[in-house]
Design brief:
Chain A is of the alpha/beta class and 234 residues long. Chain A has a six-stranded mixed β-sheet with strand order 6-7-8-3-9-10, with helices on both faces. In chain A, strands 2-1-4-5 form a four-stranded antiparallel β-sheet, covered by helices on one side. In chain A, helix 4 runs antiparallel to helix 5. The radius of gyration of chain A is 18 Å and the shape is globular. Chain A starts with a strand and ends in a 6-residue tail after the last helix. The mean pLDDT of chain A is 89. Chain B is mainly alpha-helical and 273 residues long. Chain B has two domains: 131 residues, no CATH class; 129 residues. Chain B is built from eight helices and two strands; from the N terminus they run H-H-H-H-H-H-H-E-E-H. In chain B, strands 1-2 form a two-stranded antiparallel ribbon. The chains are: A alpha/beta (234), B mainly alpha (273). Chains A and B meet through helix 2 and helix 3 of A and helix 1 and helix 3 of B.
């Protein structure tokens, strides 16, 4: 579904991604894992067209990133990206104008589930609530691809649980693809189907999570420690 | 159901108008403040400026307000980067055409609203400080060559205002172009924006000068003398002749289109976060 073909992305002299080739399958939850600066967010930005590859190409269903492919992607950025004057309902009304797959019923359901209110001014609510708003807008669409960039970053444990619950609540297994970048592997270990470990812009390990755990006889957290702290190669 | 272009453009336009709302209120407060000051000074003191001087000051506020709108158009683009709102805009299934057209419409709306209110306030203050009996006299006050500016020069004024509006729109498009070029560089972005803006205007000026030999610009030009009826001449205003006006409009529109599509191409193909 999402293909990276020999993708290199440079920021000045720094190589954020170094000749990455990868195929992310349809209908799975995939974790993009790695420490800061490993290239996780860059991969997400290339899929959303926020960045362009320095070389190579990114394809969605065999086609280059275009307005057509963007219609199928829901994106949750790590940073706050709302306009300061926006209330939750303003953000909703703005976003829903652009997507045919917007599901108003799902929005209403999630709004209650996440304990948010339409009239809340986004600028004035807490960081955890803003994270929920981003999640609300991403999951109120029946998008084929959902990209979540550090959705758990800086969020308290209760909100994290709520976010993970939301992710799996209406997930359409086999149809919908979720790509999630995070440092909080422990929390999402039981949710993801596939894992991709990145280090300095290269893929160091990837595969089916169950299979990786069985083969290496380690949890994902321990696997990550082996890869990043001990520099072990698999 | 496929979302229509008009609904997407409307959503973007509403968003851009909302982005300009707070500062528009500040600009209007500024305009109101200056006009109130002028009115107060004329009515309560023997000011050295005199009524005419304050009238000129009040009229300058209109141009000041429009200048503020123009300056703000630079930051309307750069703030999308600064405030991270580009994360909301760039992943949308729309192209640069929609994004920049909506911004242009929003700025022109702001221009109409602020320019219109400023003009109305200025005329109101002039009306009061000159102790006139009707609005027509404000225009008579400005035109010594005829019985009234409105009656004899209305068509010329409408033509010039239309041309001014097209030129202002063109200037905003060049601001967009310069800002997008500037944003393609991570360092010295603001400086590059400024240089590209100046160079673009110099280029357009040079092309206009080259065309000077092709079109007889002086044909049909008309001079109007300004000043109080029966008094000394305060200045002149030259209205463009029809060939110059038509050439000016055609050239400005063509240049605007070139800059607009260059902007949207760069945004779609080259611009990154």
């Amino acid at each position: 579904m999402i293909q990276f073909k020999n993708v290199t992305k440079k920021y000045g002299k720094t190589r954020a991604l170094d000749d990455i080739s990868l195929d992310i399958g349809k209908g799975k939850i995939t974790g993009l894992l790695g420490p800061n600066g490993s290239g996780k967010t860059t991969m997400i930005k290339l899929i959303t067209d926020l960045n362009k590859p320095s070389s190579g190409e990114v394809l969605i269903n065999q086609a280059s990133i275009s307005q057509e492919s963007k219609k199928r992607i829901a994106y949750l950025p790590e940073i706050d990206h709302f306009y300061p004057w926006m209330k939750i309902k303003d953000a909703k009304n703005f976003i829903k104008t652009f997507y045919e797959d917007w599901d108003e019923k799902m929005y209403e359901e999630l709004l209650g589930f996440l304990e948010l209110e339409d009239n809340m001014a986004i600028k004035k609510i807490s960081k955890g609530q803003r994270a929920k708003v981003k999640l609300l807008l991403a999951f109120s669409r029946r998008a084929d691809i959902i990209l979540l960039d550090e959705p758990l970053s800086g969020i308290d444990i209760f909100t994290r649980e709520k976010i993970i619950e939301t992710m799996i609540k209406d997930y359409r297994e086999g149809e919908q693809s979720i790509l999630i970048t995070t440092h909080e592997i422990k929390e999402i270990e039981h949710v993801i189907d596939d894992a991709i470990f990145l280090k300095q812009g290269k893929i160091v390990l990837q595969g089916d999570v169950e299979q990786l755990r069985a083969e290496k006889n380690l949890s994902l957290v321990d696997l990550m420690k082996e890869v990043y702290s001990n520099g072990k190669e698999f | 159901m496929e979302k229509s272009f008009s609904s997407k453009l409307w959503a973007m336009y509403k968003k851009d108008v909302m982005n300009l709302k707070t500062e528009s209120i500040f600009m209007l407060a500024f305009v109101l403040g200056i006009n109130a000051y002028v009115y107060y000074q004329v009515m309560t003191s023997d000011s050295p400026l005199g009524a005419s001087g304050y009238g000129v000051l009040s009229a300058m506020v209109v141009f000041g307000a429009l200048f503020l709108v123009f300056i703000r158009s630079f930051s309307l683009i750069s703030s999308e980067w600064k405030d991270n709102t580009l994360h909301m805009i760039m992943p949308l299934p729309i192209g640069g055409n929609t994004i920049f057209f909506s911004k242009l419409l929003a700025i022109l709306t702001q221009t109409f609203v602020i320019g219109g209110i400023s003009l109305a306030l200025t005329l109101g203050v002039l009306y009061q400080i000159l102790e006139l009996e009707n609005i027509q006299q404000i225009f008579n006050f400005l035109a010594m060559d005829s019985g009234g500016l409105l009656s004899s020069n209305l068509i010329e004024i409408i033509k010039m205002a239309g041309y001014g509006f097209i030129s202002f729109s063109s200037l905003i498009v060049i601001v967009f172009f310069s800002s997008v070029v500037g944003r393609m560089f991570t360092k010295l972005s603001g400086f590059i924006t400024f240089v590209v803006f100046i160079l673009s205007n110099v280029l357009l000026g040079q092309i206009t000068r080259l065309m000077d030999g092709v079109v007889d610009f002086d044909q049909g030009a008309r001079v109007m003398y300004l000043g109080e009826p029966g008094g000394e001449m305060a200045g002149t205003m030259t209205f463009m002749g029809t060939p110059e006006l038509l050439f000016g409009i055609a050239f400005t529109v063509a240049a605007s289109l070139v800059f607009f599509f260059a902007t949207t191409y760069l945004y779609d193909q080259k611009v990154e976060l």
